[in-house]
C-alpha cells in the first residue's frame, strides 16, 4: 500500500483488507510506518508494551543484529518467530510485524539496509497467502525497502484534487526506484478511499478513471464514522457493519477484486 500523499487511507485499507482476507487466508500485515498506526489499531496496548520489551519489531529487521559469532548474530536477528504477533481483531488470526517510533532513527540507514525487508520476508512467502505492507507517506528507505520486497503495489487514492495531484509524484518516485534497482514493480491498481457521494468527488473519480484506464478498482471504500469507531475499539472497520453495512460490503468487494488481480499477475 503506497501513496506519498499522507492521510489518504492507506492504513485503513491495509487493516480492513488484512482483516477481511484473514477470514479465509493466512495473512501477514507488515507495518513499516514510524507512525505505527496499523500496530496501534490492532495490537492491544498491553500486548504491544510487553512485546517491545521482549521481542522484535520492524526496527530490528532494518538493524544489523548483535553478537560475537555468526551463530549468535543469527539467533538475535529478527525472524518470523520473534517479530510476528498474532492478533485476532475480528475473531480470526491475523499476523502482524509491529512497528515502532524508533524507526525514525533509521531514515539515514547505511547502504544495503534497503534489502533487509526483502530478505526477512523471503520465508514468509511460503508461509502466507498474502503479505500486505503498509508504507509511510514518504519516499524513504522504508518505502524503497517495500518496493524491493513486493510483487506489486496498490495505491489508495482519496478522490480530492490535492490527492490526485500527488499521483504523478508517486509515479515519479516509483520510476526513481526502478532506475535505482534496475527492476520494475507491477501496479496492481488504484483504490478510491473515503468516498462521499458529492458531485466534486464524482468528477474527480471520473477524471482518475480516464487518466488510469482499467487500473481503478470497481469497488471503493466509503467515508464513514464507522472507521473512527473501529480504531477506538481496536476492531476491523467492517465489524461495524451493523451500523455501517457499506463498509463490510466495500471490503468484501475490494478483496474479491484484489484476489482476482493478484491471480492474474
Ligand atoms: N473510509 C474512511 N471513513 C472515515 N474516515 C477514514 C476513512 N479512511 C480513513 N479515515 C480516517 O482518515 C485518517 C487518515 O486515514 P489513514 O490513517 O488510513 O491514512 P494513511 O494514508 O494511512 O495516513 P498516513 O499517510 O499518515 O499513513 C484517519 O484518521 C482515518 O481514521
Ligand atoms: Mg498510514
Architecture overview:
By secondary structure, the chain is an alpha/beta fold. It has one domain: Rossmann fold, CATH 3.40.50. The chain has 13 helices and six strands. The strands form two sheets. The chain has a four-stranded mixed β-sheet with strand order 2-3-1-4. Strands 5-6 form a two-stranded parallel ribbon. A hairpin with a 6-residue loop joins strand 2 (85-87) and strand 3. The radius of gyration is 18 Å and the shape is globular. The structure holds adenosine-5'-triphosphate and magnesium ion. Residues 6-12, 33, 35, 37, 136-137, 193-194, 221-224, 227-228, 231 line the site of adenosine-5'-triphosphate (ATP).
CATH superfamily: P-loop containing nucleotide triphosphate hydrolases
Instruction: Name the hetero compounds present.
Output: adenosine-5'-triphosphate, magnesium ion
Q: What is the CATH topology classification name?
A: Rossmann fold
Give the CATH class. Alpha Beta
Q: Can you name the CATH architecture? A: 3-Layer(aba) Sandwich
Largest sheet report: 4 strands, mixed
Q: What gap, in angstroms, lies between the N and C termini?
A: 16 Å
Tally of DSSP β-strands: 6
Judged by helices, strands and strand pairing, the structural class is alpha/beta
Percent strand equals: 5-15%
> Which residues sit in consecutive blocks of at least 5 with pLDDT less than 50?
none
Helix content: 40-55%
Q: Based on CA inertia axes, which overall geometry fits?
A: globular
Domain AAA: 1-174
Protein name: ParA family protein
InterPro entries: AAA_dom (IPR025669), DNA_Partitioning_ATPase (IPR050678), P-loop_NTPase (IPR027417)
Amino acid at each position: 500500500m503506497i501513496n506519498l500523499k499522507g492521510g489518504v487511507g492507506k492504513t485503513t485499507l491495509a487493516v480492513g483488507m488484512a482483516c477481511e482476507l484473514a477470514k479465509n487466508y493466512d495473512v501477514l500485515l507488515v507495518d513499516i510506518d514510524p507512525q505505527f498506526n496499523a500496530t496501534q489499531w490492532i495490537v492491544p496496548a498491553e500486548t504491544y508494551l510487553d512485546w517491545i520489551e521482549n521481542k522484535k519489531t520492524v526496527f530490528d529487521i532494518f538493524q544489523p543484529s548483535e553478537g560475537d559469532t555468526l551463530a549468535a548474530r543469527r539467533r538475535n536477528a529478527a525472524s518470523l518467530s520473534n517479530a510476528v504477533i498474532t492478533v485476532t481483531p475480528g475473531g480470526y488470526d491475523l499476523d502482524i510485524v509491529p512497528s515502532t517510533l524508533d524507526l525514525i532513527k533509521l531514515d539515514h540507514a547505511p547502504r544495503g539496509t534497503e534489502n533487509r525487508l526483502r530478505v526477512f520476508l523471503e520465508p514468509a512467502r511460503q508461509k502466507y497467502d498474502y503479505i500486505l505492507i503498509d508504507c509511510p507517506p514518504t519516499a524513504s528507505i522504508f518505502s524503497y525497502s517495500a518496493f524491493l520486497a513486493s510483487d506489486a503495489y496498490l495505491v489508495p487514492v482519496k478522490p480530492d484534487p490535492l490527492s490526485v495531484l500527488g499521483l504523478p509524484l508517486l509515479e515519479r518516485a516509483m520510476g526513481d526506484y526502478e532506475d535505482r534497482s534496475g527492476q520494475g514493480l507491477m501496479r496492481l491498481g488504484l483504490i478510491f478511499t473515503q468516498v462521499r457521494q458529492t458531485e466534486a468527488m464524482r468528477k474527480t473519480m471520473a477524471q482518475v478513471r480516464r487518466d488510469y484506464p482499467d487500473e481503478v478498482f470497481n469497488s471503493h471504500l466509503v467515508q464513514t464514522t464507522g472507521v473512527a469507531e473501529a480504531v477506538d475499539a481496536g476492531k476491523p472497520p467492517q465489524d461495524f457493519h451493523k451500523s455501517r453495512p457499506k463498509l463490510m460490503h466495500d471490503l468484501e468487494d475490494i478483496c474479491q477484486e484484489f484476489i482476482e488481480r493478484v491471480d492474474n499477475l
